[in-house]
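Sanity check

After download, print the first record. It should look like this:
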Amino acid sequence: MKTVAFNTTLLFYPKKNPKLRLFALWYFTTLMIVWNVVGHTILGFEQSWATPVTAIVTAVVVSMFLDWVDAWSRKRELRFTGSVGNFLNFLPASLIPGFACGMLLYANERLAPVIFAVVLSMASKLLLRAPVAGGHTQHIFNPSNFGVAATLLLFPDVSFAPPYHFTENITGLWDWGVPLIVLVTGLAIHALFTGRLPLVGAWIAGFVLQAVVRAKIFGTPFFVPLMPMTSAAFIIFTLYMIPDPATTPLHPRRQALFGFSVAMVYALFQVAHIVFGLFFALVAVCAIRGLSLHVWALRGRLEGTPANSKLEPAAVPLPVASHLGPSENLQ
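Expected structure tokens:
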């Protein structure tokens, strides 16, 4: 008899509420669709239409294949079968990385680097995981960020999409209006559904602090290292890349530490003259968090306590879900 997959990501949402998670996923998916359609028709996205189409098709196909592999190995049910609702609710976790990789990478006319980024994004959810609670594991990297960062590192001739293309074809008040819309929609989702405002606030505070300190040390005008904050791309990274509920802590203090740490690591990359520091900083902090989860689990085993009996040190306990079986899904 096949078991039902347990959704480990629920443990990282306020009150472990599945409705909050589902609404947040569809909210973000809808925004990604709107951004891409408006971006390619009005705003001035540099990529061709083939890029987002290829990216989302790749994401869905790869996600379904990986879910089949995981379901077969764990003898659990497929997440995208059984009903139309199951299939539709399976899509957001695939569409979001697909749209993000297609929107944030610029590979000129080539599609192979974008496909590589999407495949790596989806595969990281299955391959790079850490124990979190009750014998369950969770992926540790934001899939979109991981795929984008790895592609920028391994393909020197691929670049991050120019930040200006978010507002290239608009003028006047819309130069402020588009970033404002992105800001308001992002703050709403974290205030009402994900509970990640402490993380966002700590990241912004840390970014300002490191910018002022670097300006003081290197004798540059204070506003120069703050300039990235004026772009729509920075707002998107701040509200839709860093505070991914599935790969960030739930406890407010740990959220603040996570967000502040990304800012400090970014500062180190800037001092070392490493480009694309935002993406690499987030990968580094996620890796450190993932390693700490493995160390915490090992400590529990050595002390003879149930492995990961708590969701991170002193965080939220696992809800009763024994009827779901030992399996877990990949979202």
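If your output differs, re-run the checksum step. Summary of this record's structure: DSSP finds eleven helices and four strands in the chain.
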